[in-house]
TrEMBL record:
This is Acyl-CoA oxidase C-terminal domain-containing protein. One of its GO terms (biological process) is fatty acid beta-oxidation. It comes from Oncorhynchus mykiss. It comes from the Eukaryota. GO terms for molecular function: acyl-CoA oxidase activity. InterPro entries: Acyl-CoA_oxidase_C, AcylCo_DH-like_C.
Length: 119
């Protein structure tokens, strides 16, 4: 199965491929970051809330963004390690055994703000 969307650019990657997963977790982090910035801006600038109270009301969003950041950095480091793996059989095994479960448990049903990212 292939999917094409705005965060994939001009090519189509297969769902579950490492390159697709990297793009998906980066997209999730960017969406959470932008929506958090928008929420804080609206609370502080438009509703004139104090920043401390606005920040506290967005803590769930902040922790979701932190987790998305951790997922992205971890997956990027894993991708680098897989790319530098000298043995082709190990490379294939790491991709099959480690990437597929990560995709299904970490990316497929995580929320993006109020939206769900489901493939």
């Amino acid at each position: 199965m292939s999917i094409f969307g705005s965060f994939l650019g001009f090519n189509v990657d297969t769902v579950g491929d490492l390159s697709f997963l990297l793009k998906a977790v980066s997209y999730r982090e960017r969406v959470l970051q932008r929506s958090l910035a928008t929420r804080l801006y609206n609370k502080v600038e438009k509703k004139r809330e104090e920043f401390f109270y606005a920040w506290n009301s967005c803590l769930h969003h902040v922790t979701s963004l932190a987790l998305a950041h951790i997922h992205r950095v971890t997956l990027e480091q894993f991708a680098l390690a897989v790319q530098e793996c000298p043995v082709e059989e190990d490379h294939t095994l790491l991709t099959k055994v480690c990437v597929k479960p990560v995709f299904h448990s970490s990316v497929s049903h995580r929320s993006i703000g109020n939206q769900k990212l489901c493939f």
